[in-house]
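Data card: per-record layout.
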Amino acid sequence: MSFDAELREFTIGPLYRADAERCAELERVLFPGDDPWSAQAFRAEVAAGHHYVAARDGDRRLIGYAGLAFVAALPHAEAEIHTIGVDPAHRRRGVGRALLRALLGPADAVGATVFLEVRTDNEAARALYEAEGFTVVGLRKRYYRPSGADAHTMRRDPR
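The structure for this 159-residue chain is written out next.
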């Protein structure tokens, strides 16, 4: 899948184990006050067979990542979005939306309800999720560690 956002091309494709170090590097930038994922955590997610995707710029450099896991099978399929991250230099160009849609496609294909957590103070992410059909269904106090930030649990019904 290829996208042209503000004259900056990027592609969406699989996330590979070899991308783990770059993902961990971005995690440290994106989530400094919390517990950013390690390279090993990314390798484990990919090895477990969860649906992980990457956004790459025209030079094939990883500029974003996202992952989803199916947690319940048909007839009541459920999935949860584990993570979405975009390099700050590439934000507001459609990368996050493209990553999210790349996760939702497989969930929609099996009619899965999708859940996620988002920091209550992350208005941009919450607006993106709402635009893609998610609604707030709960509040998790002190969900993020070690910052103690609260999270909204959001849900998207099957499509």
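Known properties of this structure: DSSP finds four helices and eight strands in the chain. The beta strands are 2-5, 8-14, 51-57, 62-72, 78-86, 113-119, 135-140, 151-156.

See the next section for split statistics.
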